[in-house]
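Many groups now describe folds with learned vocabularies. In that spirit, our science desk offers one protein's residues alongside their backbone shape tokens.
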Amino acid sequence: MCRDKKVHFISRKSKITFWKSRQSWVSVASFTLLFLSVAVSSMAGEVWVANMKGANVQIIDTNSNKVVKTISTGAGAHNVTFSPDGKLAYIANLGTNSITIIDSMSKEILADIVTDTKAHDVAISPDGKLAVVCNVGAGNITFIDVASKKAIHTMATDKKAITAVFSYDGNTLYVVNAGAGNISVVDVKSKKITGTLQGAKGAMAIKPTANWSQFWLTAPADNKLLLLNSRTGALEASIDVPGEPHGLIHSPDGKTVYVGQRKLGQISMIDTASRKITKTTSLGQRPDMIAISSDGKTLYVAIRDENKLAVVSAVDLSLTIKIDTDGETHGVAYRDN
């Protein structure tokens, strides 16, 4: 009997120990989940806004929707581009014919590089090693070695070289020439034009589809959004977008394209499958460039003539808030913290 009782006592003790251990692990697991939940909910990104008359770039915390830092760049700060890893920011300065490179982590200026007349936009290679500046006033592009932060080559493309995009492998650069209404195809290694594709007069933005088979291109002079074959330049679709379509961005899943309509003071949501406008929303005077959060939930729209940044739901285009910025807000870009 004693032996049986002893065995029973040990068994009961084990059960108590196991239960306490289980309670401990449950507590730890619950705390870990709570910690992760709080951490995820508190994570925020940054929106960088270029202000032309302000000659600066402002950084907005997306958690608080407040300006947390202002960095002086050059006159006519126009567009913002991030490196693929988000660690560097490139600001094209129209007024000083230059770009400013900023460490996006420390917020320190690393270099100011003179390019050519009216530096308008910057394209970055997929590996982050090469930057190309579109100089709209000179009709040319300037190649910059990122490591040395020096201009290494300038070449002519066509009238009003306004924006550009690298191919997915970085071997080809597509330069939008707004004045000539075409797209120069540039071999990056030889730095020579290998072809010319159809473009659009006054084109301001170009975005490739996910599989790189097509380009979305704004055509403000014709009040159209064009879908072009990226290999041949053939027109595959033309969507009526009245009111001078300007800024352009697509959702991370590629199912929706958002376009700013400057003369109408609104933005439109376009379904890429049906290629039709599904919703429009008035935002203010001259909505310009557009950025989207990495989760695809929020749009950030520069309202140029109001010195504001509009924060908009990407789902239904409802306005969340307008944030005061600086003189003549134009370029806007988003990065995760």
